[in-house]
TrEMBL record:
<dbReference type="GO" id="GO:0016757">
    <property type="term" value="F:glycosyltransferase activity"/>
</dbReference>
<feature type="domain" description="Glycosyltransferase 2-like">
    <location>
        <begin position="13"/>
        <end position="180"/>
    </location>
</feature>
<dbReference type="Pfam" id="PF00535">
    <property type="entry name" value="Glycos_transf_2"/>
</dbReference>
<dbReference type="InterPro" id="IPR029044">
    <property type="entry name" value="Nucleotide-diphossugar_trans"/>
</dbReference>
<dbReference type="InterPro" id="IPR001173">
    <property type="entry name" value="Glyco_trans_2-like"/>
</dbReference>
<keyword id="KW-0808">Transferase</keyword>
<comment type="similarity">
    <text>Belongs to the glycosyltransferase 2 family.</text>
</comment>
<comment type="pathway">
    <text>Cell wall biogenesis; cell wall polysaccharide biosynthesis.</text>
</comment>
<keyword id="KW-0328">Glycosyltransferase</keyword>
<protein>
    <recommendedName>
        <fullName>Glycosyltransferase 2-like domain-containing protein</fullName>
    </recommendedName>
</protein>
Length: 372
């Protein structure tokens, strides 16, 4: 089937810090896209390796440069990039990536085509390989599929796998979606902001990995995300101070139950292994980071920023919708097919008046939204 071109326009956004050689390669790959690219925002996180001077030489009118007066971290950089996209440009979609992301020439084309041809798509991302196009998957950029239901979109010529989150290594979403869910959480500083943000989107609409869209991640190592047990690089150790704190808030944004499971899991699984396994480097530092991070995370809850003001009514949440439906129909045996039908056809207010528990849940949900 021949793909039908649309008139959609896309802003790419790259956040960079002291990786000039990689930035040059990444920017060249983005500017070499075959379709849809309109602008490129480069957020320079106060690099001191000549990045600012190099960016000043770029004459391509599509490139907009923001030289931050301070290092905002990856999270702050992406927050700033999306804000600039919303406030200074009028393109339809924003496409985020790190400075060590090398996108294939048609990566953007497949993302936009999939978004345009399918309904209920909140974000799309690329398949991410490590080091080279034919390399292994980049393990830190493998998104979580929606359990069991991910195959529902594999019937098209341009297939996608449904996922519930994504890293900021070639992920795209719309201007309208930012108005719904707000900006990435800049207070994370580093690690986890991408998962929390795309979790937010996937609770409103579905996310997909578009299998024909490919990006190469030229990270230093092909490591697992947040693997403090096997971490041996002392230059990366400081990041785990943020990892565990941020992980707890990401879980809280899903549910209080999920937050308790994540916090307890870190203390019950990772902490004992750091303390008791043989040949663990930086053992006591790591143990302190896990404990401090988890307990800081329990109190860490910065507000979500909205460029055009927070919506007056809560945006439909898939998690809240399914919970309210269960309370409204406590005797119904739920199946995955039924869950998909509920997501496609129900709104939260459709479940009012069924049971007192459902009514109370809906009222509490809306009250909590207004108080945040």
């Amino acid at each position: 089937m021949e793909t039908k071109m649309t008139d959609k326009k896309v802003t790419a956004a790259i956040v960079t810090y002291n990786r000039l050689a990689l930035l040059k390669e990444s920017l060249a790959a983005v500017l070499n896209q075959t379709d849809y690219l309109s602008h490129v925002i480069v957020v320079n996180n106060k690099s001191d390796d000549g990045t600012k001077e190099y960016l000043a030489t770029i004459s391509d009118p599509r490139v907009l440069v923001y030289n931050s007066p301070e290092n905002l971290g990856g999270a702050g950089g992406f927050n700033q990039a999306v804000r600039l996209f919303m406030e200074q440009l009028d393109d339809d979609y924003v496409w985020l990536m790190d400075d060590d992301t090398m996108v294939e020439p048609d990566a953007l084309k497949y993302l936009v085509d999939f978004m345009d041809e399918h309904q209920h798509v909140g974000f799309v991302n690329s398949v991410v390989r490590w080091g080279a196009r034919n390399g292994n998957p980049s393990w830190m950029n493998v998104p979580a599929p929606r359990v069991f239901t991910w195959q529902t979109a594999l019937n098209y010529d341009n297939p996608g796998i449904e996922v519930v989150n994504s890293t900021f290594v070639s992920v795209m979403f719309s201007r309208a979606m930012v108005n719904k869910v707000g900006l990435p959480q800049k207070e994370y500083f580093i690690w986890g902001d991408d998962m929390e943000f795309t979790n937010r989107i996937a609770d409103v609409d579905r996310g997909y990995t578009v299998v024909k869209s490919v990006a190469v991640h030229k990270s230093k190592e092909n490591s697992m995300p947040g693997d403090i047990i096997r971490e041996k690089d002392d230059s990366r150790l400081w990041r785990y101070r943020y990892e565990f704190r941020n992980r707890v808030l990401t879980a809280r944004r899903i549910s209080k139950r999920e937050m308790r499971l994540v916090a307890w899991g870190a203390l019950r699984y990772e902490l004992p292994r750091v303390l008791l396994k043989r040949n663990i480097k930086f053992r006591w530092q790591k143990a302190g980071m896990i404990i401090n991070g988890v307990f800081k995370g329990l109190a860490f809850n910065p507000e979500i920023e909205y460029v055009n003001g927070k919506p007056k009514e809560p945006i439909r949440s898939i998690n809240a919708l399914l919970r309210a439906y269960q309370l409204a129909n406590p005797d119904e045996r739920m199946t995955l097919d039924r869950e998909l039908e509920i997501i496609d056809t129900y709104q939260l207010d459709d479940l009012r008046g069924k049971t007192a528990k459902a009514d109370q849940f809906i009222a509490d949900y809306k009250k909590d939204y207004q108080n945040k």
